Amino acid sequence: MTSVRSTRARRIAACTALVLSAGMLLAAPASADDTAPHHTVAERQTSSADLRPALNLPEHTAQRQAAAAPAAKPRADFDDDGYSDLVYRNYASDLRTLPSSSDKEYGFEIPGNVPSAFKDIIPVGDQTGDGFADLLTLSPYGSLTFRAGMSGAGTGNAGWTGKGWQIYNKVLSPGDLTGDGRADLLARTPAGELYLYPATGNTSTAPFGARVLVGKGWGTYDQLIGANDVTGDGIADLYGRTVSGDLYFYPGTGSAKGPFKAATRVGHGWKIYNQVIGADDLDGDGRGDLLARALNGDVFVYLSTGDSGELAGRVAGGTGLNTASLLAGAGGSPDFGKNDLLGLDTKGTLWAYWSLNNGKLGARDQLSDAGGWKGAKPFYASSLNENALVDLMEVSGGGLYNYSYAPGTPPRVSSGWGSYNLTVGPGDLTGDGKGDLLTRDTGGTLYLHPGNGTGSGFAARIRIGGGWNAYNVIAGAGDFTGDGLTDLLARTSDGALRMYRGTGDKYRPFQSPFTVGRGWNTYQKLAAPGDLTGDGKADLVGVDRNGSLYLYVSNGSGQFAVPVRLGGGWNTYGILN
């Protein structure tokens, strides 16, 4: 088979097998019932990689001189025109920039790094004083790296790196919160605690000072939007959107001890947007404005109008922004690891679908020769290495194989899997940012297998508990409940669907379950494809007895919106995950 090569496909197909480190489950010598499978995998096409958003943003005016205080510095001005630019990652995992000074799009390179490996990109303006905008990049495993001197093409070099940032579900820079002219950081925990990290000016060894607790209860917002200076006083401000769609405004105070005044509700109905973006000053009046992306990819502009966070009525600002899988400055908690759906049809042919970030799936890609996987047991696991892309796995005989390591001859990354009747790769369950696996043995005991971060092996299994044979479906891929932690869904034989909220604790990875609903046995198959709607929350699909595929969009609180039919003919698949 031949296919169109793409950056994203190469990330899956071109990895090299690594030697397993000590303490991992090393592969045992092959036996008659534990031999390598003889399946091949084609590189996936990315037919939508050439799509470009078409933005029509407000023209800059001459009102900036009339601002009451010096205009806040833009956080993402990479073309040096005084206005922030839009940086995003597309379907093909390439970073792109839409400069405010041009209607053309450009590549945005960050030297020495795979673009898809970033969990988030955080513009922080000019921290070094050299006249060039700087960036922070966040890795899936919690490394936050300061990158100084970014130009329009993105040629900045890595400097300081801090570890352990995976404890937060959202890291953002709203701008200067302390009044010293430097952009500061905010970070929120899954428990809803919000911390301020004040900028120090020491960008080489310690760009941010010790954290200061801002407050608790910030988990009520599914999006935190740093808007830079909205009120015109030179201090950064913040918006928060609730799960129900109310928009609240927090004016900045300029004090690290108490950086925000009391919140004011400034809007409702914002639930229709999957991402709200702090775009800095769009029209030149010196006040921070917002962009909002609708599910279909349409963009709307909200210009600030006063000192209390009020916004003018929305104005159309473009189309096609659903091509962005990651937007720098977006308010939603970032997700990674799986935005795909895998299907093995009844003839043994393997197929895959990309998410289009608009609640739809792209055209299917054929991953194998016709019938080449007949009788196999493949599954997609949320990323097991730091490239943040899905891993294609297979259990064959007593071995576990990872095709994302070496598609031609996949390495056996673990042995002794013949006693398991189920394997699921929902993402990070241990709190280290690395993808893990779950297995269930024939007696109904569930085990956690912590990943080593490369996809080449797993630490010793941890027993979670018994009784899991009560479920005929166990599925998960990311965060269903909006706290940034990996969750799990399980369906009983009588059709009850239960949610297990993640904890991030490998010895107690799930809270006690709650029932999402009943009647779910109407679906012959349930699958967790990850985020299909571009809002950072995991979604669910089901295939009914007629072969119709339905999408259940997560509302961020552990429940799902009314299902939407995506199409028919899905009973052609014997395996879907």
For the largest beta sheet, what order do the strands appear in spatially? 1-22-21-20-19
**Pairing-aware structural class of the strands and helices?**
mainly beta
> Averaging pLDDT over every residue, what do you get?
88
Assign a percent range to the helix content: under 10%
Number of strands: 43
Q: What is the radius of gyration computed over CA atoms, rounded to a whole number of angstroms?
A: 24 Å
Query: How many angstroms does the end-to-end distance come to?
Result: 23 Å
Helix count, per DSSP? 1
User: Mind describing the biggest β-sheet?
Assistant: 5 strands, antiparallel
> Overall 3D geometry?
globular
The percentage of residues in β strands lies in 35-45%
| Poorly predicted runs of 5 or more residues | 1-33, 64-68
Task: Report on the architecture of this protein.
With 577 residues, the chain is mainly beta. A 5-stranded antiparallel β-sheet has the order 1-22-21-20-19, with no helix packed on it. A 4-stranded antiparallel β-sheet has the order 4-3-2-23, with no helix packed on it. A 4-stranded antiparallel β-sheet has the order 5-6-7-8, with no helix packed on it. Strand 7 and strand 8 (157-162) form a beta hairpin. The longest helix has 7 residues, at 7-13. Residues 1-33 and 64-68 have low confidence and may be disordered.
